Amino acid sequence: MRPVFEWHLRSRIMQLGKRTLIMGVVNVTPDSFSDGGAHFDRDRAVEYALNLLRDGADIIDIGGESTRPGASVLTGSEAKPAVTEQQELERVIPVIASLKQKRGDALVSVDTYKSAVARAAIEAGAEIVNDVSGFRWDSRMAQTLAELGCGAVLMHTRGRPEEWRNLAPTGDIVTLVKRELREWADAATIARIKRERIVLDPGFGFGKSHEENYPLLKRFEEFHQLRYPLLVGVSRKSFIGRALARQGKDADLTDRLYGTLAAETAAILKGAHIIRTHDVRACADAVRIADLVVS
């Protein structure tokens, strides 16, 4: 049985575990690895989000900065991030506000590691902050989330995107990710983010080599030892392309749908509470069948 939790958000409580929730991805960026900037426009992004809701998305995750491998992100005292705080605000806030205007009941998440963007997004109507850095790249993020009283996704990342290709391999990636997620979640609660607001994500692809992602999926049930709800994002990622390689060539993004669905289904069968995906309609069908097994 999958453990059941109550996820406390800004204005509602979501029950996690009775069925799998689907988080649909909307990238408001010109350089997204998954769609190449197809929704880098407010009106197109909002229409796309509405379509995802019609296709079965429970949550819309809106992001304004790509964290694909090799991307430059702002941490500490760096002066030249790939996307400035103001640029990110100009990308995501109009989309969130317009989507909420059209669908007031829409549950919106903002994909950001910047505390100022998180605050503005919540004020515009979002209820969840999805931080790929685990609240670590912006020293003000944990305090900001505590003050906002919103839902928070704490994701595991090794290093930063520009460092990923040069990271040394780990002896046991699952043990490492479990240990660091536990430490980071403990730090978040010490910073007064309430435990019932936190969801954990092991961060498939984020600072992990192709080979390190497979044991994360194979042993995914071990993350229940942390006693938090779990989110999984494997959609279209390069480790799936590698697993589907033919004649020495990794599968292109357009050829990763079936592999993505297989990985998402495996995660559900091992207890994932939320699936973050680009292919919402296909995922929704897979979820309906997988939930018959786990519920």
Write up what this structure looks like.
The protein has a single domain, classed as Dihydropteroate synthase-like (TIM Barrel). 48% of the residues are buried. It contains nine helices and ten strands. Helix 1 packs across helix 2, helix 2 runs parallel beside helix 3 and helix 3 packs parallel to helix 4. The model has no long low-confidence stretch (mean pLDDT 92). It starts with a strand and ends with a helix. It is of the alpha/beta class. It is globular. The strands form two sheets. It has an eight-stranded parallel β-sheet. Strands 1-2 form a two-stranded antiparallel sheet.
Output the structural class: alpha/beta
Shape designation: globular
The CATH class turns out to be Alpha Beta
Helix content: 25-40%
Key phrases:
alpha/beta; 295 residues; two-stranded antiparallel ribbon; TIM Barrel
Topology overview:
Blueprint: E1 5-8, E2 13-16, E3 21-27, H1 42-55, E4 59-63, H2 85-102, E5 108-111, H3 115-124, E6 128-131, H4 141-148, E7 151-155, H5 173-190, E8 198-201, H6 210-218, E9 231-232, H7 238-243, H8 257-269, E10 274-277, H9 280-294
Parallel strand pairs: 3-4, 3-10, 4-5, 5-6, 6-7, 7-8, 9-10
Antiparallel strand pairs: 1-2
Helix pairs in contact: 1-2, 2-3, 3-4, 8-9
In short:
This protein is α/β, with parallel strands linked by helices. It contains nine helices and ten strands. It has a single domain, classed as Dihydropteroate synthase-like (TIM Barrel), CATH 3.20.20.
